[in-house]
Amino acid sequence: MPVLNVAFCGSADLARSLAKSNDVRDIESYVFKEKRNGETSVLSLLRPLRHPERLRPLLSVLNVAKVGVVEVRAVDAAMGEVLVAFGAARISRGIVIINPDAGGWVDSDQVRMILKQAGLESWALHETLPDAHDLREEIFSHIEAAGEAGTEGALVLPVDQHFNVKGVGLVAIGYVQDGAVKKHDEVLILPANERAVVRSLQVMDDDVEAAVSGDRVGLALRNLREEALHRGCIIVHPNSDAPIRHDKSNLVLERAPFQKRRVALDDVIHAAVDLQFVVGRVTAVEGDSITVEWESPLWIRSIGSPSILITQLDAMPMRIMGCVERIEVA
User: Fold this and answer.
1) Is CATH 2.40.30.10 correct for 244-329?
2) What is the CATH number of domain 157-236?
3) Phi, psi torsion values for 223, nearest 5 degrees
4) Using CA atoms, how far apart are residues 157 and 242, in angstroms rounded to an integer?
5) In which residue ranges of the chain is CATH 2.40.30.10 found?
6) For residue 1, what is the enclosing H or E element?
7) pLDDT tens across 99-148, in order?
């Protein structure tokens, strides 16, 4: 069941015209299922709430999505931060829709220029709101190129919720970021370094034998303390190419477009990757090379890490400092 996760920054009305509301937390989820080429394909729109007041839901969505959709109601600082964040997250497939508020007007040439500066030249731009069916088809056209259903890599499954279910036991919920997990697999939970066995799995409320990259899955786990789970912990297979623990990192920062500030000694920053949101303090700076001590462990994939976003929450109106060009354990 191929799943295409889409970072959707637009109105709830537009989201509802494309898919059915499925879940609401700090991120709204909208799901559309359709038989395509003999199998069920799923369009999963992930809409971060309360931006620009809160940045973390946007970053979490960017950690998961392979495609972006942005509805531009006005050209302002919030819209600029959204597009810069997509660029820093290296989401090269996307659609921008100009749909100004009643009585408003948006300069399409200005939007085009911002897309180019943010590194999103490959995105499609609609100067008027497309028909919902046509827009859905355009989004679906990315499902094969986005490669959501890959199973080649080592398992990386960050947890964003966990709870006990009567008759089932301890359940962890998260998005499979890479690889696959199967029923009866032995798994390792980091950083607790505790092992468990997968009793059962659910994807889209259906019992399944396996979950692959792109799936939001619930894992019923056996032989595990509840204390081993928390938001941001990561489930992997034992003895695999597991993520590397960083308590202190040397990294090279690629500064974001429009960002005038530079990271300085003693600055507090946040790193967002694989649904982690880890705070750190800068202990050394030399140009764009910085050393950071993390308040809690930051886990970075040993192979094929996605873009690591660096932010400063007090750096309004542009909190995206950039992305990590290179990182190593200090």
Assistant:
1) yes
2) 2.40.30.10
3) 65, 45
4) 11
5) 157-236, 244-329
6) none
7) 998 888 999 999 999 999 999 999 999 999 999 999 999 999 998 776 54
Query: Of residues 303 and 117, which shows the higher confidence score?
Result: 117
Output the six-digit token pair for 73: 């109601």
Range list of β-strands (E), 140-287: 157-165, 169-175, 180-182, 186-190, 194-203, 206-208, 210-212, 216-222, 234-236, 244-255, 268-273, 276-286
The one-character DSSP state at 312 is -
Q: Classify the phi-psi angles of 264: left when phi > 0, otherwise alpha if psi is within -120 to 50, otherwise beta.
A: beta
Instruction: List, in sequence order, the alpha helices (H) in the chain.
Output: 12-18, 56-64, 77-88, 108-117, 132-140, 143-146
Residues of the chain with CATH 3.40.50.300: 3-146
Q: Report the alpha-carbon distance of residue 109 to residue 107 in Å, rounded.
A: 5
Q: Is the peptide bond before 317 cis (omega within 30 degrees of 0)?
A: yes
Label each residue of 128-183 as H, E or C: CCCCHHHHHHHHHCCHHHHCCCCCCCCCEEEEEEEEEECCCEEEEEEECCECEEEC
∠70-124-88 over CA atoms, to 5°?
Answer: 60
pTM of the prediction? 0.93
**Of 109, 62, 2, 33, nearest to 96 (Cα)?**
109
CATH 3.40.50.300 fits 3-146, yes or no: yes
Q: What CA–CA distances, in Å, run from 54 to 27, 57, 91, 234?
A: 11, 7, 21, 23
